[in-house]
Structures are given as C-alpha cells and as structure tokens.
From TrEMBL:
Pfam families: HSP33 (PF01430). It comes from Rhizobium brockwellii. The keyword Membrane does not apply. Gene3D superfamilies: helix hairpin bin, Hsp33 domain, HSP33 redox switch-like. Coiled coil: none annotated. It comes from the Bacteria. The keyword Plastid does not apply. This is Hsp33 family molecular chaperone. Keywords: Chaperone, Cytoplasm, Disulfide bond, Redox-active center, Zinc. Residues 206-228 are annotated as: Disordered. Signal peptide: none annotated.
C-alpha cells in the first residue's frame, strides 16, 4: 500500500521520537525530519555523559535515525566515528523497523583539557579520523560501507560528502542538539536532552537535472558558484540553510510546523510518521553464545568471584554467568 500524504493541519502532529517523511513537489525535493525527546534523553542519561559528549552523540543519533528510516529492507544502519580527539569513538545504529541504540567513548583527561580551553565544537572533539556508514542486510549479503574523512568540518558537511560520493544525490543535512531546563509536574527542576534534524534530497524525474559540481579539489573545481546545479535545488538548499538550530529542537515548533515554515509556498506534503525507540539488540543468549567460543583459559581469566559479568556498552545491562553455563554440551 502506498503511503498516504496529507497537508498540514489534516491530522495530529507527530510529536517527539517520530520521523516525518516529506515531499516538496514544486522543488522536486524529498526528505525526512525529526525531533527526538524522551528516546534520546534515555540514551544519554543512562551513561551520564558530560554535556559536550552528549551533544555530539545526540547529533550522531539524529543522523542515524534520519538515514536508517529510509531503508527499504530489513537490516541495520550504523554510523560510527573513529578519531584522535578527546571523543575517539561514537557509534549509533538503527535496526529496522524502529530500534535505536548509541554509545560514546572518550578520554576524560583530554576532554577536561578541551573544555578548559574552550575547544568543544564537534570537529574539535572528534579530531582527525573517519566517519563510516554501514548498511547490513543480514547473513545473506555482504555489508556495504561508505567511509569519509573527519577533516575538521561539521557532521552536517561530512554527511553531505558521503551522499555525493556514494549516491550522487544532491543532499543537505541539518542537525542540532540542546539541553532543556524546566520543571516537572511537581515543580521540581528537571534537565532533559533534545535534538532534531532534517535531510533534504533533490530527486527530479529527469536524472540529468541532478548533476552536481565536483568535490572540492577535484579536476572540475573552479572555486566559484556551483556550475550546473538546478535552480530548484539551489532554492531548496537555500531554504534548508535558513533553519536555526533552535527551530530543530524547540518542542513548541514541531516537525510539521518547521516544514511548513520552510516550504509552504512550494506545496510541502508530509507522510505518515515513523516512531523510533530506545531498544538495544543485546540479549543473554547472544552474549552466552559469544562466551561459549572462549577457550577454557579465557573463561578462567574472565571470572571474578566465581562468575563472569558482561555489561553491554550500549544499554548498560549486565549479564552474569556461572562458568558451568559456558561449557559445551556433551
């Protein structure tokens, strides 16, 4: 069954933790937008990340959700960074149809130094390295991986490079994360995390209209206005670039309202929203299966107080095993 489209105002707003697909027929643009609230807050607060790390991981989660929900098959989409900065590893994955998990690793001493010197922009925290996008359709196919360098630019810009290299589709990505300080129903102070994002892609019926300028430094790079880009895409991209970070995270704006602000003159349509959830894919059986592959010496070395404890880095769930549980069946 085809997805049903609706004009703004014909149905209730999607709200937090729902990805909203949209189409701007007048500009040949399609995309997805999202605001993340309770789902993201649960992921970040579980690990008590310092604010600069939480903000960075939040942007990666938004990017993963925006791209992962575009999968047309059962599988997993993973975004992972590896760099030489204070935050040396970020990983988030989306398992169809709706499950998200994420984790950050950082050096506390280097992070403290970065905070003291005011070097807490995402590109400064990540340093030099790579950003990998991995699509895994399961055991019957080989994973596809696209890798782009962490080169001191923003995650938004790096994501744009990925699309130009892998899909050759003109794409603009916007990401933002924010801390929200308010009071709960009982009047007590409350701290929460929010994030939002949007991805817009130029998809005209005539493929030749999708021509893009060469990447910076390529043979065709002139350093001037992008040559050959379609006027409709130039307009769409310019509109997307007017978005303030606050608009992406403000709970009073809402995803559909933001899309209306941007594109109403061109006839924006929104489609059925897709909910996403904070759900880890770990399980006792999976971890037990891994441990059963250990040698007797490795099992012995892993014991503490007569048991083996394994904590999932993503959801912080701890699984405990007796050594006898890990012996092969006779």
């Amino acid at each position: 069954m085809a997805e049903a489209a609706a004009a703004l105002g014909q149905f209730d707003f999607a709200g937090d933790d729902h990805v909203v697909p949209f189409q701007v027929e007048g500009l040949d643009v399609r995309g997805r937008a999202v605001q993340l609230g309770p789902m993201l807050d649960a992921i970040l607060e579980r690990h008590h990340y310092p604010a600069p790390v939480a903000r960075l991981l939040a942007e990666v989660v938004v990017l993963t959700v925006l791209l992962g929900t575009s999968l047309k098959f059962d599988g997993k989409f993973t975004v992972q960074t590896k760099g030489d900065g204070p935050v040396d590893l970020l990983v988030a994955d989306f398992s169809t149809p709706e499950n998200v998990r994420a984790y950050a690793r950082f050096d506390q001493a280097l992070l403290n130094k970065a905070i003291e010197s005011g070097e807490t922009e995402p590109e400064q925290l990540l340093g030099k390295g790579v950003l990998a996008f991995t699509i895994d359709q399961g055991k019957f196919s080989q994973p596809y991986q696209g890798i782009v360098p962490l080169d001191g630019t923003t995650l938004e810009d790096i994501a744009g490079v990925y699309f130009r290299q892998s899909e050759q589709i003109p794409t603009r990505v916007r990401l933002a994360a924010a801390e929200l300080f308010d009071r709960d129903d009982a009047g007590k102070p409350r701290h929460r995390w929010r994030a939002g994002g949007l991805v817009a892609q130029f998809l005209p019926e005539a493929p030749e209209r999708m021509r893009q300028p060469d990447l910076h430094g390529g043979d065709g790079d002139t350093g001037s206005r992008p040559h050959g880009e379609d006027d409709a895409w130039l307009e769409a991209r310019s509109l997307v670039e007017t978005i303030d970070a606050d608009e992406l995270t403000d709970p009073l704006v809402g995803t559909e309202r933001l899309l209306f602000r941007l594109f109403h003159e061109r006839g924006v349509r929104v489609y059925e929203p897709r909910a996403v959830f904070d759900r880890c894919s770990c399980s006792r059986d999976k971890i037990q299966g891994v441990l059963k592959g250990f040698s007797a010496e490795e099992i012995e070395a892993s014991q503490e107080n007569g048991e083996i404890a394994v904590t999932c880095e993503f959801c912080s769930t701890t699984y405990r095993f007796e050594p006898a549980e890990l012996q092969p069946a006779e």
